[in-house]
Amino acid sequence: MGLFSFLKQRTSGQDPARADRGLLLFENTSEVIRAEKILRAAGFAVAVKGPPPEVRTGCDLAVEYPLIEGLNILRRLEEAKVPPLDAIPVTGPLLTPVDLYHVKDFGDHLMVRAANMKITVDKRTGVIVNVSGGGCPDVPWLAARLIGQRLDEAPSPRETGHTLCGYALGLAFEEMKRQCLPS
Amino acid sequence: MSKTVDARGLSCPQPVLEALNAIAAMSSGTLVVLVDTEASKENVCRAVEAKGWTLDSVSEDRGEYRIAISKG
């Protein structure tokens, strides 16, 4: 089986373990990005999600975390001076976090959008054919670096980008890898 | 052989995909792609160059772009 000869069928919102997850809400997107980086580096299983409208505080990103790790996570964030505005359990369907990703299949090509950024890959070859969206100054530079590269060889936009668009593109890039690359 | 892809009114990545599909289907010749946003123009040009095809010209008229590409 070729590297890109299959696609994993993944759908959003089907995590049976959702009830043991919580959401960390922050004042702004920069804090979400910092908190996610700190928590991932510390080995916590966190993910960036869109908060449900009922708990939105102005920032359209939130960090989903395992409730059982809540105390350790809050301590770590306070030490790093990135305390969340609130930490809430995901207890009901109305509080289900919104998946940031939108996947569209164009036949030979697959597009993943995360927030305002889109990445498109040729499914047969795994080559990135397009990067679009956003309005940040590093988007053309990121596009120039990524287009024409194979998904498994391209540099991560999260490492090379410097803006929120670069961060969103990084999320789309990682989701595309999850969709296309064998695990 | 000459062909035109009218991708005006489409949002990315569709202009890029239509251009790539059209030129991939050609053995040789010229393809003209029409788009109506700066971002689509940039993205089509970038994709064409990444594929190793020749970008002959790009012209703009009242917010619409005409991208000429040749293959073979």
Strand and helix map with partners:
The complex is a heterodimer of chains A (183) and B (72).
Chain A: E1 21-25, H1 29-41, E2 47-49, E3 62-66, H2 70-79, E4 86-89, E5 101-105, E6 109-114, E7 117-122, E8 128-133, H3 139-146, H4 157-160, H5 164-180
Antiparallel strand pairs in A: 1-3, 1-4, 2-3, 5-6, 6-7, 7-8
Chain B: E1 2-6, H1 14-24, E2 29-35, H2 38-51, E3 54-61, E4 64-71
Unreliable residue stretches of chain B? none
Q: Which protein chains are joined by the largest interface, and how many residues does each one contribute?
A: A-B, 18 and 15 residues
What characterizes the major β-sheet of chain B?
A: 4 strands, mixed
Series of H and E elements of chain A = EHEEHEEEEEHHH
> How much helix is in the residues of chain A?
25-40%
Beta content of chain B:
35-45%
- How is the quaternary structure best described? heterodimer
Structural class of chain B: alpha+beta
| Spans of at least 5 consecutive residues with low confidence of chain A | 1-17
Number of helix segments of chain A?
Answer: 5
| H/E series of chain B | EHEHEE
Total strands of chain A: the figure is: 8
What would you call the shape of chain B?
Answer: globular
Portion of residues within helices of chain B:
25-40%
Q: Helices and strands of chain A: which structural class?
A: alpha+beta
